[in-house]
Amino acid sequence: MNNVVAFIPARGGSKSIPEKNIKLLGGKPLVSWTIETALACGLERIVVNTEDSKVIDIASKHDVDIQIRNPNLAKDNISMYEVLRSEIFKLNPVPEIVLLLQPTSPFRSKNHISIALSYFLNNIDTYDSLISVERVPERYSPYAMIVEHQGEKRVLFRKLIGLKEKIVSRFTGKKFVGPELSGYPVSQRMLRRQDLPQCWLPTGETYLLKTSNLKTGSLYGDNVMLLECESSININSPEDFQKAEQLCAQKS
User: Fold this and answer.
1) Residue ranges of the chain with pLDDT lower than 70?
2) Alpha carbon separation from 49 to 2, 43, 60, 70 (Å, rounded)
3) Same-domain pairing of 188 and 232
4) How far apart are CA 196 and CA 141, in angstroms?
5) Where are the beta strands (DSSP E) in 119-196?
6) What share of the chain is helix, strand, coil (3-state, %, to 5)?
7) What's the pTM?
8) What is the Cα–Cα distance from 109 to 195, expressed in whole angstroms?
9) Total structural domains in the chain?
10) Are residues 109 and 211 in the same domain?
11) What does the pLDDT look like over 171-221, one tens digit per residue?
């Protein structure tokens, strides 16, 4: 699989969890979980991309390549698309396929990666990318939800909050203003469970994409394969990290 590169982006900064990628989980740095799983898959090209010296020290202990990222590409407002568009074409040779493995999914298995690669490579003429997903329960379907939008204009739903409006007005003299709703139009909400279309949520575990996608302004291209898998922990908050630690303790 010389045309495939496993790309592990591990910047040093993180607001939600300081130094998240080097924080110890089960006795080893978070980024090491992903590196070790990629190595266990027998992947020939594994690149850890970072601007952080501590991540470099950790990655140096493994048989992987290290790509130094420009600090300007390690800021909070930089998208993964921007990182890949900049960094992938610096590799020599430039890979045809990118296997994106984010350190925030430490419990992905080598079997999951192998299955994803097999499906994608066997259907490479049909699909531009593959995303690991989990099925969204019907009760959380976006087609049945009402989404609050914090805009300048507000809409007052008198039938729902008329009583609250009267109470607020009586004690403050100010008119109560409710939230403006956006997203799927409320008037078109699907109330019958049988009418709800099936929805999936990306798990964050595995992304496979053709490098050529990056030249078109998209990670995914036009045709996306969904690989349904079991729900897994994607660490984006202190609460997520705590759940991951609890899972590690249960396994030990």
Assistant:
1) 1-2, 146-191, 252
2) 19, 16, 12, 10
3) no
4) 7
5) 129-135, 147-149, 180-182
6) 40, 20, 40
7) 0.82
8) 35
9) 2
10) yes
11) 555 554 444 445 555 555 656 777 788 888 999 999 999 999 999 988 999
